Protein backbone atom coordinates (compact mmCIF):
# COMPACT_ATOMS: atom_id res chain seq x y z
CA UNK A 1 0.00 0.00 0.00
CA UNK A 2 1.31 3.46 -0.83
CA UNK A 3 2.03 6.21 1.59
CA UNK A 4 0.13 9.43 2.04
CA UNK A 5 2.36 12.46 1.76
CA UNK A 6 1.66 15.75 3.53
CA UNK A 7 3.07 19.14 2.66
CA UNK A 8 2.79 21.33 5.76
CA UNK A 9 5.04 24.34 5.51
CA UNK A 10 5.57 26.74 8.42
CA UNK A 11 3.78 30.07 8.11
CA UNK A 12 1.37 28.91 5.40
CA UNK A 13 -2.39 28.54 5.61
CA UNK A 14 -2.64 25.31 3.61
CA UNK A 15 -2.16 21.60 4.00
CA UNK A 16 -1.59 19.45 0.92
CA UNK A 17 -2.27 15.72 1.07
CA UNK A 18 -1.08 13.49 -1.80
CA UNK A 19 -1.70 9.81 -2.43
CA UNK A 20 -1.36 7.48 -5.42
CA UNK A 21 -4.18 4.97 -5.97
CA UNK A 22 -4.01 1.95 -8.26
CA UNK A 23 -7.33 2.81 -9.91
CA UNK A 24 -8.29 5.16 -12.76
CA UNK A 25 -9.59 8.66 -11.94
CA UNK A 26 -13.17 7.68 -12.84
CA UNK A 27 -13.15 4.94 -10.19
CA UNK A 28 -11.52 7.14 -7.54
CA UNK A 29 -13.92 9.99 -8.27
CA UNK A 30 -16.84 7.58 -7.96
CA UNK A 31 -15.63 6.32 -4.58
CA UNK A 32 -15.13 9.80 -3.13
CA UNK A 33 -18.48 11.14 -4.37
CA UNK A 34 -20.75 8.14 -3.65
CA UNK A 35 -22.63 8.65 -0.36
CA UNK A 36 -23.00 4.88 -0.03
CA UNK A 37 -19.21 4.43 -0.02
CA UNK A 38 -18.20 7.36 2.21
CA UNK A 39 -18.85 5.43 5.48
CA UNK A 40 -16.48 2.71 4.30
CA UNK A 41 -13.43 4.99 4.08
CA UNK A 42 -13.93 8.51 5.50
CA UNK A 43 -12.37 9.22 8.88
CA UNK A 44 -10.16 7.32 11.30
CA UNK A 45 -10.83 3.63 11.89
CA UNK A 46 -11.96 4.11 15.49
CA UNK A 47 -14.94 6.21 14.37
CA UNK A 48 -17.94 5.27 12.28
CA UNK A 49 -19.23 7.66 9.67
CA UNK A 50 -22.77 8.51 8.62
CA UNK A 51 -23.65 10.67 5.62
CA UNK A 52 -26.46 13.08 6.50
CA UNK A 53 -26.33 14.95 3.20
CA UNK A 54 -24.26 14.78 0.04
CA UNK A 55 -25.21 16.81 -3.01
CA UNK A 56 -22.18 16.58 -5.31
CA UNK A 57 -22.92 19.57 -7.55
CA UNK A 58 -22.12 23.28 -7.47
CA UNK A 59 -23.97 24.86 -4.51
CA UNK A 60 -24.76 21.37 -3.17
CA UNK A 61 -24.32 20.77 0.55
CA UNK A 62 -22.56 17.94 2.32
CA UNK A 63 -22.61 16.84 5.97
CA UNK A 64 -20.95 13.81 7.54
CA UNK A 65 -21.14 12.63 11.13
CA UNK A 66 -18.37 10.73 12.90
CA UNK A 67 -19.52 8.68 15.89
CA UNK A 68 -17.18 7.39 18.57
CA UNK A 69 -17.53 4.24 20.69
CA UNK A 70 -19.48 6.16 23.37
CA UNK A 71 -21.98 7.46 20.83
CA UNK A 72 -20.64 11.03 20.75
CA UNK A 73 -21.15 12.70 17.38
CA UNK A 74 -18.81 15.03 15.51
CA UNK A 75 -20.25 16.93 12.55
CA UNK A 76 -18.43 18.09 9.41
CA UNK A 77 -19.89 19.80 6.40
CA UNK A 78 -19.81 22.48 3.78
CA UNK A 79 -20.80 23.44 0.26
CA UNK A 80 -19.52 22.20 -3.10
CA UNK A 81 -18.36 25.09 -5.28
CA UNK A 82 -17.08 23.26 -8.35
CA UNK A 83 -17.48 19.67 -9.55
CA UNK A 84 -15.75 18.44 -12.71
CA UNK A 85 -15.97 14.63 -12.95
CA UNK A 86 -13.58 12.83 -12.85
CA UNK A 87 -10.97 15.57 -12.48
CA UNK A 88 -11.75 17.59 -9.36
CA UNK A 89 -14.11 19.06 -6.87
CA UNK A 90 -13.87 22.14 -4.70
CA UNK A 91 -15.79 22.49 -1.47
CA UNK A 92 -15.76 24.24 1.85
CA UNK A 93 -14.97 22.13 4.88
CA UNK A 94 -15.99 22.99 8.44
CA UNK A 95 -15.94 21.10 11.74
CA UNK A 96 -19.13 22.15 13.48
CA UNK A 97 -17.32 21.99 16.84
CA UNK A 98 -15.32 25.04 15.68
CA UNK A 99 -17.96 27.08 13.84
CA UNK A 100 -16.71 29.78 11.52
CA UNK A 101 -13.35 28.09 10.95
CA UNK A 102 -13.97 27.20 7.31
CA UNK A 103 -11.36 25.76 4.95
CA UNK A 104 -11.54 25.59 1.16
CA UNK A 105 -10.61 22.13 -0.10
CA UNK A 106 -9.68 21.35 -3.70
CA UNK A 107 -9.36 17.67 -4.60
CA UNK A 108 -7.66 17.00 -7.92
CA UNK A 109 -7.45 13.55 -9.54
CA UNK A 110 -4.69 13.20 -12.13
CA UNK A 111 -3.96 10.08 -14.23
CA UNK A 112 -0.54 8.79 -13.20
CA UNK A 113 1.42 5.57 -13.76
CA UNK A 114 -1.55 3.28 -14.29
CA UNK A 115 -3.54 4.88 -11.51
CA UNK A 116 -4.48 8.21 -10.02
CA UNK A 117 -2.65 10.90 -8.13
CA UNK A 118 -5.06 12.27 -5.52
CA UNK A 119 -4.13 15.76 -4.33
CA UNK A 120 -6.19 17.54 -1.69
CA UNK A 121 -5.25 21.10 -0.82
CA UNK A 122 -7.04 22.60 2.17
CA UNK A 123 -6.61 26.35 2.58
CA UNK A 124 -7.52 27.63 6.03
CA UNK A 125 -8.50 31.16 6.99
CA UNK A 126 -5.30 31.69 8.95
CA UNK A 127 -2.01 30.03 9.82
CA UNK A 128 -3.35 29.64 13.37
CA UNK A 129 -6.45 27.77 12.15
CA UNK A 130 -4.30 25.50 10.01
CA UNK A 131 -1.91 24.85 12.89
CA UNK A 132 -4.83 23.96 15.20
CA UNK A 133 -5.82 21.18 12.78
CA UNK A 134 -2.24 19.89 12.80
CA UNK A 135 -2.13 19.94 16.62
CA UNK A 136 -5.45 18.05 16.71
CA UNK A 137 -3.74 15.28 14.67
CA UNK A 138 -5.68 16.01 11.48
CA UNK A 139 -2.99 14.35 9.35
CA UNK A 140 -3.55 11.07 11.22
CA UNK A 141 -7.24 11.11 10.26
CA UNK A 142 -6.33 12.01 6.68
CA UNK A 143 -3.76 9.23 6.47
CA UNK A 144 -6.20 6.65 7.87
CA UNK A 145 -8.90 7.82 5.46
CA UNK A 146 -6.52 7.47 2.51
CA UNK A 147 -5.46 3.98 3.69
CA UNK A 148 -9.10 2.94 3.97
CA UNK A 149 -9.87 4.41 0.53
CA UNK A 150 -6.95 2.43 -0.96
CA UNK A 151 -8.36 -0.75 0.61
CA UNK A 152 -11.82 -0.02 -0.79
CA UNK A 153 -10.45 0.66 -4.28
CA UNK A 154 -8.34 -2.53 -4.20
CA UNK A 155 -11.45 -4.57 -3.36
CA UNK A 156 -13.35 -3.28 -6.42
UniProtKB/TrEMBL annotation:
Family stated for the protein in its record: Belongs to the AHA1 family.
Domain Activator of Hsp90 ATPase homologue 1/2-like C-terminal: from-to ranges: 22-153
Superkingdom in the source lineage: Bacteria
Protein name in UniProt: SRPBCC domain-containing protein
Amino acid sequence: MGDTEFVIEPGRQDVIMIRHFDAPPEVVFGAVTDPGLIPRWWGPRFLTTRVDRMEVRPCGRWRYVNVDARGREYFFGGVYHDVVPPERFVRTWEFEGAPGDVALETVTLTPEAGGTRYTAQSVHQSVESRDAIIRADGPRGGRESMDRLAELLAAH
